[in-house]
User: Fold this.
Amino acid sequence: MTDQQAAALDPGNPFAEPSALPFALPPFGQIRIEHYLPAFIAGMAQQRAEVAAIATCAEPPSLANTLEPLERSGRVLERVAAVFFNLSGSCGTPELAAIEAQVAPQLAAHHDAIYQDQRLFARVDALHAALPPAPPAGEPATGSAETTEQVEQRRLVQRYHTDFVRSGAQLGEADRERLRALNAELSTLTTTFKNNLLADSNDLAVHLTDAAELDGLSDGEVSAAATAARSRGLDGYLLTLVLPTGQPALESLSNRSVRERLHRAAVSRGIRGNGFDTRATLTRIAQLRAVRARLLGYPDHAHYVIADQTAGSVDAVLTMFSGLVAPAVSNARLEAAELEAALVADGKAGPLQPWDWAYYAAAVRRTRFQLDAAAVRPYLELGRVVRDGIFFAAQSLYGLSFVERDDLRPYATDVSASGSVEDSQVQVYEVRDEDGRARGLFLADWYTRDSKRGGAWMSSFVDQSHLLGQAPVVVINLNLPQPADGEPTLLTLDELRTAFHEFGHVLHGLLSDVRYPRLSGTSVPRDFVEFPSQVNEMWAYWPQVLSRFAVHHVTGEPMPAELVASLQAAQSYGEGFATTEYLAAALLDLEWHRRSPDDPAVAVEDVESFERQALERHGIWFPLVPPRYRSAYFAHVFSGGYSAGYYSYLWSEVLDADTVDWFTAHGGLTRENGRRFADQLLSRGGAVDPMSAFAAVVGRGPVVEPLLRRRGLVTTG
Assistant:
């Protein structure tokens, strides 16, 4: 079969042509399981034919005949992949998993066929060689002789050249063949890890039949647990697992044995020796990544990844971390002593255990700050948080308004249902500028379900691009417990922060204003992409915002001033724990990915001892504070895009804390501040050097002191 024949997709397939819906929203109501695989096959074949035409062009290479056609290529593949991978994460089914297992290695091979094409690389290489000297990176672009268009064109050439080189375009044919085999196997393994982790997380949900065992949970939390049980045909209650080690219910459950069950369920994911065990998969992934890195000229996978990030080197990351470990662990030990005293005062036998930490930390907050998390939740109703908090801040800063579009059909979230709009929990909003001009669409998928992977994330169905005439269609996913019918969704403080955080990614996608899709929205280095979303968290506690959404869901009364004051005062409490659990996970990630291909593979039974030894080497082994993610359920690095990059959150927080200080010093929630942040940074995506974009906002490079103060790792004098 020729590429042209394979590309002849049935016109009735909803992926065959661009969607006719507003903003090219995918026609979810028309998409069926049988449409995906033919669209993938045809889409890959179509793009191969398009790339062959570019590679064999007789004219000297230019943006117009090389990179712009490459940016336009693969539209069918882009459409089907955007829908498929979004839904496989948020509404996964065995049928989707089977298709993913089939197409993942094919997509890896397809990527390699393009980025290892010697004819195409020769054209990209020529464009790269012809670039004039670049202005210094990391400095404000103000005063640069290059126009915005020229800067973006330069970045496009640079990024494509880097993509080709890092994909093996400069290797010999034998090494390219080896690289293709590695990529194919890795794509299969990461898919396997993802699917097994979801299955084991579902299997380990804690089933309770006695309501007394849920003592301490709010009525809404008990209702959500009952709803989760009913959804699986069970009596009683089900405590489902969120992605990190720490489970939200541990803060409230008074029954110590139930807390222990829940904690042990969380940390045993992937290590039980059953059909969902992830250890053999993750050790093989780490080994193959090391082999691939050496093939590409790097000592290990961590060096390969970080070389293309703003950090620049593994040493830079480790240097920053080495200065944080000792004070973080010291603070955590001080917190542990205080919590153990609270445990004993509560009449319980010591010592303090990991499943006790959140419960007694909440008790300390109640005593020291007069802050009771249960008393806060009635003021954090989801709809009001979104409307009067998240949307209000976005309008105040960026002039955006959000109008719900009930006429636009979202994807179905009840995977066993017929697919009617009533089967969806997803909300669709049209986003408009302050002048009323439509900007794009925002989809909100808030609730947990067995078919949704853990965690919270933002993604896109359509990327903004002037070249393609596309406006953004972005989606946010959280895993909030589903309340019973008619009951409100009341957030925890952590869920509140997560909602504002993920919406920061949404803004990065919505405010994108670039020509090329390769540079659109969140297409920035991994250790920079978290920065805008972390900045957006600040508005959750900003008085002007908090006062609007923190209203009792029954009485309509505003949150009492003393409770607001307690919230503000308690923000910095527990940073020893938070920093330690994060650093432990980030260092585990680096240790797995600093392994050389000459190192023997870690045996399945040795994964836990590998973790302990790695953390002991860095001085952060503290059993009371386990890593935020242990290896066997570390989805960020073994099935997501954060391998050797989980350090990014803290690296980005340096920029975040510095920027929060800048916002605060310049008046906070103002349209002028939002305009500057959007114009200089959010709208530019990957079209400018990220550190130059930061400097254009703040007026200088970043400093670390604001982060250290926030984390309680230095005194303020």
